[in-house]
Design brief:
The complex is a heterodimer. By secondary structure, chain A is mostly helical. Helix content of chain A is 74%, strand content 1%. Chain A has helices at 2-13, 19-35, 37-57, 74-80, 83-114, 121-133, 137-146, 153-160, 172-184, 188-199, 203-211, 216-245, 248-253, 265-274, 279-307, 311-315, and strands at 60-61, 69-70. The longest helix of chain A is centred in the N-terminal third of the chain and has 32 residues, at 83-114. By secondary structure, chain B is mainly alpha-helical. In chain B, 75% of the residues lie in helices and 0% in strands. Chain B contains 15 helices and no strands. Chain B has helices at 2-56, 60-63, 79-86, 89-120, 126-135, 141-154, 162-165, 173-184, 188-196, 201-212, 214-229, 233-238, 247-257, 262-282, 284-294. In chain B, α1 packs across α14 and α3 (79-86) crosses α14. The longest helix of chain B is centred in the first third of the chain and has 55 residues, at 2-56. Classes of the chains: A mainly alpha, B mainly alpha. Chains A and B meet through α1, α2, α3, α5 and α6 of A and α1, α4, α5, α6 and α12 of B.
């Protein structure tokens, strides 16, 4: 913060009118663009360009074998009457809400536990954090095994208590809960963020609350939660966007099945593009996903007014 | 009057002693509950790893006994070499190493240059460009997946390792953000002093900023390593011939061919996880630092 202030001071106290310094400033500007030039190229080639391109491709019919033909809004009309579009959207939202919501609770509770001053914290932190670091296909294979109806870990633990577990990945009603359960194993990633946040809550706030006679529960709701709300908010947004996108694990574990119960939106786009080679329709789907993400993020920001607390606001 | 007061203070101190004793008991109980929860949860979190190792050592019959036993009756260490040699995993390993290190180096170079620009050089349009940079973190990959593929196929680079490597050399928003945050914590007085001595921006970058940023650079290197090591989506889209397969892609092929041989699958999976686990245990501190610096997880 102090550094940024210094920057502003330097910027404003610099006499702009004098030609010599103006030349220096211009040189600095040139240097800035030279330093970031790699990213600018990447931004145009890999981000901005593709986004615009996919917007245009969304209005065409294109198999990549033959030249694209302009079809206007046809792809979007098809989308409205495509039952798989709704299935995929529903699946992604179900998974997103479930995994982010439960993930928030689990990772926050883990962080609260670790924030108790107990011995061996770093060992526990490592254990909780580790699963979120390993990812990809090895984890997918591991979870296929864990969720296996007859020979899996979960059902064999359940059988100790006389419960016969379901066919997690083969019964449509259990497939999404199974994926959410699996995602909770990676809750340690956001736990670390919450733990850092908890450790930076000023101690004097708790002391002040104690003097006012607040018990642990009151302190939690009136000090911890408000102070942590920006971090929680940030994690909700990022987590939700990520959960709407991730589909590689699903691709491996269920390939969208059973009965399309795990056909995620990203997986549907991938399938349309790289298995059916309908680049136009895939692009239209992708743009709808972009819009949905933007709308949900905007709604979260609007809702944030009512529960996210920023320290700076009360200082005024 | 004074006796009354004395009585009062005595009663108060007695009450205090009483409540302090209660508090100590309560704290002990609380601590015990915390430990029980921590240990219990740790077991749940670690169990899948144990299961993985135990399955990898079982023989084919043990994998499919019902109810499954947690401990293998055999310790078939040869499952590891056996699984590894069914497919040319050595080739896949080399490809993965090439792609991963090219990504790490590309990210380190491009992201640190760009981050220096954003952290230290003033220019018109800088704030808007920085917002654009952060906005790219929000773009779903699916939106750019098709045009990117078209771009690389126009360049004739499909079925080469280039599509997996090139993007890293043009910066990645998360790493740029991480490094910029770190660079901002380095006092500008150091730059100013060097500038007075006539040092150029490039020299300040190389001789002041980079040497002071080793922890942040290491964090970026680790995140890039782990992110690329397990990347399956891009190889799945771009790679066709088996001699270009990465480990993730090879493991996927292996799974397709031997989906009932869970013991071999687990053994090979464990081998592919070893580099990630090693890096993690060697550099845990840097991980946590990276997370707290940006407030974001590593992926």
């Amino acid at each position: 913060m102090a550094i940024r202030q210094q920057h502003i001071e330097q910027a404003t106290t610099r006499p702009v009118g004098k030609p010599k310094l103006g030349k220096l400033a211009r040189r600095e500007e040139r240097e800035f663009y030279l330093f970031i030039s790699l990213w600018i190229i990447g931004f145009i080639a890999f981000d901005a360009g593709p986004i615009l391109a996919s917007f245009v491709i969304g209005f065409t019919n294109w198999s990549m074998m033959t030249p694209p033909s302009w079809t206007g809004l046809q792809n979007y009309q098809r989308l409205i009457s495509d039952p798989l579009f709704y299935t995929a959207m529903w699946n992604s939202l179900y998974f997103g809400v479930g995994s982010v919501g439960l993930g928030l609770i689990v990772s926050f509770l883990l962080a609260l536990l670790l924030n108790q001053k107990v011995l061996g914290i770093s060992v526990f932190r490592t254990i909780f954090y580790l699963p979120s670091v390993v990812s990809g296909i090895a984890v997918a294979i591991l979870w296929i095994m864990i969720l296996h109806q007859d020979f899996g870990l979960i059902n064999s633990v359940l059988s100790w208590f006389g419960i016969q577990g379901p066919g997690w990945l083969v019964q449509p009603q259990w497939a999404k809960p199974a994926l959410i359960l699996m995602s909770l194993w990676g809750a340690g990633g956001s736990m670390v963020i919450y733990l850092a946040g908890l450790q930076s809550v000023p101690q004097h706030l708790y002391e002040a609350a104690s003097i006012d006679g607040a018990g642990p529960w009151m302190k939690f709701w009136n000090v911890t939660v408000p102070m942590m709300s920006p971090v929680i908010f940030y994690n909700l947004i990022v987590g939700f966007i990520a959960s709407l996108q991730g589909f590689v694990l699903v691709l491996i574990m269920t390939n969208g099945g059973p009965a399309n119960a795990t056909l995620m939106f990203g997986l549907y786009i991938y399938r349309v593009a790289f298995q059916f080679f309908q680049m136009g329709y895939a692009s239209a789907l992708a743009w709808v996903l972009l819009l949905v993400i933007m709308i949900i993020t905007a709604l979260q920001f609007l809702g944030a007014k009512y529960w996210v607390f920023y320290e700076g606001e009360t200082a005024r | 009057m004074s006796a009354n007061l004395q009585q009062q203070t005595m009663a108060a101190s007695q009450a205090q002693r009483h409540s302090r004793f209660g508090m100590r008991n309560q704290r002990l109980l609380q601590r015990m509950i915390v430990y029980v929860l921590l240990v219990g949860l740790s077991i749940i979190f670690i169990l899948p790893f144990m299961w993985m190792v135990s399955t990898s050592l079982k023989n084919s019959e043990d994998v499919f006994t019902y109810p499954p036993s947690f401990f293998p009756t055999t310790f078939l260490w040869q499952n590891y070499p056996r699984g590894w040699t069914i497919l040319p995993f050595n080739t896949f390993l080399v490809n993965s190493l090439v792609v991963t290190f090219a990504n790490v180096i590309g990210n380190l170079i491009s992201c640190s240059l760009v981050a220096f620009g954003f952290a230290r050089l003033r220019a018109r349009g800088r704030n808007i460009l920085f917002l654009a940079l952060l906005a790219t973190l929000m773009i779903p990959r699916e939106v750019t997946i098709v045009p990117r593929f078209l771009l690389f196929s126009q360049m004739g680079l499909v079925n080469t390792l280039w599509p997996l490597i090139l993007p890293a050399w043009f910066g990645y928003a998360f790493f740029i953000f991480l490094l910029r945050q770190f660079f901002m914590t380095i006092p500008t007085e150091l730059d100013d002093a060097a500038r007075i001595d006539g040092a150029s921006s490039l020299r300040i970058f190389f001789e002041i900023i980079l040497p002071l940023s080793k922890p942040a650079l290491a964090t970026v290197a680790i995140f890039a390593f782990i992110g690329n090591w397990s990347n399956l989506l891009d190889p799945l889209i771009y790679i066709r011939s088996q001699d270009l397969y990465t480990l993730a892609l090879g493991l996927n092929l292996f799974r397709g061919q031997n989906f009932t041989q869970f013991n071999l699958l687990m053994a090979v999976s464990i081998i592919t996880l070893i580099p990630v686990l090693t890096v993690f245990f060697l550099s845990q501190r840097l991980f946590v630092q990276g997370v707290t610096l940006t407030g974001m997880g590593g992926r």
